[in-house]
Amino acid sequence: xxxxxxxxxxxxxxxxxxxxxxxxxxxxxxxxxxxxxxxxxxxxxxxxxxxxxxxxxxxxxxxxxxxxxxxxxxxxxxxxxxxxxxxxxxxxxxxxxxxxxxxxxxxxxxxxxxxxxxxxxxxxxxxxxxxxxxxxxxxxxxxxxxxxxxxxxxxxxxxxxxxxxxxxxxxxxxxxxxxxxxxxxxxxxxxxxxxxxxxxxxxxxxxxxxxxxxxxxxxxxxxxxxxxxxxxxxxxxxxxxxxxxxxxxxxxxxxxxxxxxxxxxxxxxxxxxxxxxxxxxxxxxxxxxxxxxxxxxxxxxxxxxxxxxxxxxxxxxxxxxxxxxxxxxxxxxxxxxxxxxxxxxxxxxxxxxxxxxxxxxxxxxxxxxxxxxxxxxxxxxxxxxxxxxxxxxxxxxxxxxxxxxxxxxxxxxxxxxxxxxxxxxxxxxxxxxxxxxxxxxxxxxxxxxxxxxxxxxxxxxxxxxxxxxxxxxxxxxxxxxxxxxxxxxxxxxxxxxxxxxxxxxxxxxxxxxxxxxxxxxxxxxxxxxxxxxxxxxxxxxxxxxxxxxxxxxxxxxxxxxxxxxxxxxxxxxxxxxxxxxxxxxxxxxxxxxxxxxxxxxxxxxxxxxxxxxxxxxxxxxxxxxxxxxxxxxxxxxxxxxxxxxxxxxxxxxxxxxxxxxxxxxxxxxxxxxxxxxxxxxxxxxxxxxxxxxxxxxxxxxxxxxxxxxxxxxxxxxxxxxxxxxxxxxxxxxxxxxxxxxxxxxxxxxxxxxxxxxxxxxxxxxxxxxxxxxxxxxxxxxxxxxxxxxxxxxxxxxxxxxxxxxxxxxxxxxxxxxxxxxxxxxxxxxxxxxxxxxxxxxxxxxxxxxxxxxxxxxxxxxxxxxxxxxxxxxxxxxxxxxxxxxxxxxxxxxxxxxxxxxxxxxxxxxxxxxxxxxxxxxxxxxxxxxxxxxxxxxxxxxxxxxxxxxxxxxxxxxxxxxxxxxxxxxxxxxxxxxxxxxxxxxxxxxxxxx
Length: 993
Ligand code: SF4
Hints:
By secondary structure, the chain is α/β, with parallel strands linked by helices. The strands form eleven sheets. Strands 6-5-17-16-15-7-8 form a seven-stranded mixed sheet, sandwiched between helices. Strands 29-33-30-32-31-37 form a six-stranded mixed beta barrel. A five-stranded parallel sheet has the order 11-10-9-13-14. A hairpin with a 2-residue loop joins strand 3 and strand 4 (95-101). The longest helix has 19 residues, at 147-165. The protein is globular and about 75 Å long. The two termini are 36 Å apart. The chain binds iron/sulfur cluster. Iron/sulfur cluster (SF4) is lined by residues 45, 78, 80-81, 83-85, 108, 112-113, 115-116, 246-248.
């Protein structure tokens, strides 16, 4: 089987490019070569560098055409993780025939991992596993429908449910794989429906990061970048297995190592990242705060902290120190398993090799005290003076390709695009941008619900199953959309199956049917004690992939990249925004969706090749996201600027991401000084030409050079102590060289800067602040004329007053393997209503101790990623190239634990958890895990407690590789602030099958 389709291009007269392309096609790799190469470099992300030279010629972004053959090169971005590796797709007569990594990209430098190297396979084979047309579940089998039938039936049922139970009876799970524009549109769509009941995957990957980090210093995002690690002298991976989860990022880490940086991994598993590190230390899963406080203990004890930095830029470190000094080495060893020498070694390496950085992903976030763990990491970096410094910062690796952007502007239950809250003023701001009447919008919501955060994706199950009088909305959830979401990425699979069976309406919108389709079609277990809803309707709607549309995506480092449309949507699939518009028409808010009011229409409608219509994606970016997202500086990244960056990747420096100079040949746009992808915040409108911010809070640079400082978001004083930054600690060249509050019309007038606005700007800015002034005048004057930061200049907060724990505390997991520690480090009290639902903490933990659960289930069960697959895995397990690389799900088990149970390598075993669920997986006997821990990758689905679910998928659309989903068996447990699910620490037993 060849990587490319055969074509007739070789027999017609051709241009030079077309000839060279078709020559290359003839020499394309076979499957064996692909596997060999991707296997060789799995985890190191250097696939492209292994290609023969005659295949790595630079693909020119131009097109040539002859009478019979049209060859084009479309520039896009891999959709499988947040590194943002660029792809040049070669399209011949509308068929995607080949792909190359982009050698000029400053992010991936011509490399792809196995996933990126095979993105062309999304449906391009004759045996595609895509969902090809709309389907409906009838008598246990999926049957084909037309789009008209499906849209008609679904919308009628939605309106009926709305009439009977109100708008909050619907819950929409959006996707971190939507483009920024689709994400923003879905956020709007749900509000036009009249609810805040929407969420997406960020809830279950980095919600604790967003809350914890934003509440420490301003923005809830990665502060620096993958590239910036090349400026680091020490890199601590604590909660990240980047070699598998973000493979190409390792290019930058390994360059740093070559330059002398120490690379340290602290993790319950010896990961592939650990294999590349200078030092590895094994910690107990769930003991993260204890380890971080153990490090800080040595830092404070030895005076290694940066006192000057703390005094000038940090509030509350003294209170943290009081807590930290309780974490003496003996206590830390008891809780984490790490010796005094091990912890001191890491602390000393980070302190004496500055700038040093800490990297984390879901290893820190997916815990019941995830918010405390990420804050403790931030505090560690503040103590070392490492934040706002090239080579320092908190490098927080996001998961999906656009989880950062979908969080920034997408379907969140507690915010509108740009993290505007749910206050009336925020809705009014966005109504002005959207050209929607505010009073009309208000009338769409149930009384009193407009300002109330919605249900979270982690808890939709309880929104369906919980007793109605215990939930904080009128009706239980009766209808669900899985709009690009894998159910197997969520915990409590047994209960999820029950919730799916109880719904009135379940709609999957996805390029693949996903595990949702199979779970929904599978009959309930014979011994299950519930009655499925006899009136339930289940529909599957085929969505186009991101290669079949255009739009922008935000990589983990906040750089925004523009994807060109590579090919037209395959089969009967439609773009997500076309589907949103079609539903808006059926549901009666099409005019509002397009911003049609007072003789004006905000978004143009585009007629697609197949005849249906979709809103213009460029308009969504320019007229909605750019026009309204002032809070986080998504305002300067116009489509024109982003597209110029994509055409001119070669001008950007790999270490700093800054353009060395150069003009875009197509538009004449001068790229000089821009940072690649205009990493947000990119303040002001595009005309201001803010360059983007490569490293957040960096006072060594002028704000118009991407510099900044910590945000004044929490008032100016606390208990009589100023929260503003000390004198002399403003960003370079600021006219106010001291701490100052955020800017609004009043402050501008007081400072005498108001007259610097134009007359039109003054009209718009009157009564507004830097976040709500749609003219951008306040930002322009503050930034350009005075070198100040629109969001003020304050201290970062080591102590907060809006979280349950002012100082982060270690708290044992609900399913703790150490019941003896529970009394000393208990979890939180139960909460009556959290995000509309009762949430249990202590009652679950106490019951587990009383029932001696840790004796019956003596192994810690943790989960994580593999290099071959992504997320729930439906796309990647349907990809023939990737499927061949990893064919079975497995459990990593230590040789001692295996021997104690009579288990041998590669045998089938049962993994059993306290939920009653059991997973049939292969044993991988390895010292990669300690004797007390087992690990199961989370990308699998398609088996259910030992049974293949193949009969329940639509015919021909089941993934090639199916296996047990670890989350069928995971347990209850949520973060106290964000309802992040606990996937990293629960308990299990393993037995021979
Ligand atoms: S999965 Fe991530 S590292 Fe691999 S090619 Fe895609 S973006 Fe790059």
